[in-house]
Design brief:
Length: 200
């Protein structure tokens, strides 16, 4: 009886924005390398995540999914979320998770300058031509942006000039963070979630 009382908050339902979860147990994203070489969902991957949903997690965050496949993938057999061909498998994966009362989320990923050309077939890209430790020299990304939606995340230093130069070029531009007003982790998570809700 003591255990139930001690962990009762963990098994209570919760609300994350507009999403209700049956409990507060969250499975963090972990790379499985269970997708195909083209980044597509496999039966083995569906079974892996469905087993975790059966185990009682309230929210399952699916492993890092590459948003610029194959250029931004981290490893061979990385999951892709780039292209119409990924939708059927990702939908099947989400349904398998939700069938057991869990909610499904996904971690979006791009390896940037830490990508390896031996894995991706492309030179890595980054904000500047500076290699990561032990990495390859990345191709510098320029202000030429081909996107209709961009989330501009400000980290350790503010870059107002770059942000303002993107205004009017990108139809939907969202700003996350400002270096002037430090926030706690929960405020930052809430801000990111609110941007995600506005995009969707």
């Amino acid at each position: 009886m003591e255990q139930k009382t001690r962990f009762r908050k963990l098994i209570e339902s919760a609300q994350i924005g507009r999403m209700a979860v049956k409990n507060r147990m969250i499975m963090a994203p972990m790379g499985t390398a269970l997708s195909t070489g083209l980044g597509l969902v496999t039966d083995e991957m569906v079974s892996y995540y469905e087993t975790r949903a059966k185990g009682g997690a309230g929210l399952i965050v699916v492993e890092n999914a590459c948003i610029d496949f194959p250029r931004g993938k981290q490893r061979s057999h990385a999951l892709s979320i780039d292209g119409e061909e990924t939708i059927p498998g990702l939908s099947r994966l989400a349904q398998a998770i939700k069938k057991h009362g869990a909610r499904a989320a996904i971690q979006l990923h791009h390896s940037g300058r830490v990508a390896r050309s031996g894995i991706t077939g492309f030179q890595p890209v980054g904000p500047s031509p500076v290699a990561s430790v032990g990495g390859e020299l990345p191709q510098e990304l320029t202000i030429t942006v081909e996107a209709d939606t961009l989330v501009f995340a400000t980290g350790g230093t503010s870059n107002d000039q770059l942000y303002h130069s993107l205004e009017g070029v990108i139809p939907k531009l969202f700003r996350a963070g400002d270096c002037v007003q430090p926030r706690g982790i929960m405020e930052a998570i809430d801000e990111g979630m609110q941007i995600g809700l506005r995009i969707s």
